Amino acid sequence: MARAKMPPTVYEHKADSPILQKALQQTLPNSVSLTYRTQHTNKTPDAHIVATFPPFSQDIPKCWATCYYDRSMRPETEMWIFATGEIEGHHSSPDGGFCPQCQNAVLAIVDYLSILPVPPMHPDNLYKIDMAKEHEKEYPETGDHVRYPLTSGSYLRHLLIPSVVTLGACHHAIVKIFDEAGLLRNEFPGKEADLNKFIFKVSDLPQTKELPENLHWGTVREEDIATVQARTSIPRTTRTLMSMKSVGVFNDKDTPAAWTFLGLDGSLTTLHTEPEHRGKGIAKAVAAKTFRQYAPGLAVDTEGNAWAHADVYAGNVQSEGVCRSLGGRIGWKSFWVRIDVGRAGQLAATDES
Questions:
Q1: pTM: predicted TM-score of the whole model, two decimal places
Q2: Which of 92, 110, 131, 301 could pair with 28 as two cysteines, CB 3.0-4.6 Å apart?
Q3: Which ranges carry the GCN5-related N-acetyltransferase Rv2170-like domain (predicted)?
């Protein structure tokens, strides 16, 4: 693929940067993950928001990329990236890839990230390094060809390589760019675990039926977090989960029966119904209530439409069914992957002449 001759400059932005928020608004719903993530209150002093246009700019270029990046969050998701090449019709190519300018913008972002210092992990997560070391003892083999069994330890193994970053909700075309640039790691989660990005227009959400008589609405409390964490292998701390908006369903003993969160990037996160309560439409009701309660006003396009979204692993029939029952449509393929930013630094094209 041909490349643009000069790499764009990468600039730091504040979360409320008017030109950044305008650019994200104009590209909704494609930019939905970044729109939510830049607005979320869960930000640390180590977070970087960068874009390939300056914060003092009056004009938004045709081709650009932007990124939210916070290494102190590891082993949770540390990075989200968006580029205009993700928009259907932005550039016509036989393989559905990016135009040279958009590809170069993505690579320039990663080149910039590669020179940033790696901050300390949050103290709440430090014990997970010991878990990663235990995994290394159990599975000492390494290399691009190695695949570890899917366990909590396999989610943490990358902590032993400081330059490896967990990237969330990444568009399939950007994953391809990273793969071709030699940045992509092959351990799970990776490019073999594709997700369908479901997009919802909040105003089109259907009405849902009332809860059964023995159940009532609430929000997830700190004392419920251990139960939430036990139902998933994805490592999220109590601190992170409690920073998210949540909707819960509780039985008459005030024990959680179902729950979900609005993730840091606005996605429907950790949607779960306990086995004895399944088949009653509760998951659909929880998801709809979450979007109706929290999504309005957050990711609103230039026509006034509010957008919500969910990433569902391909083949997860139950979750896909819930999304479709809410009027969700599949917009594109996304991935949770890991990249090694230590391999970046001079990826963006400079001059081919």
A1: 0.92
A2: 301
A3: 247-337
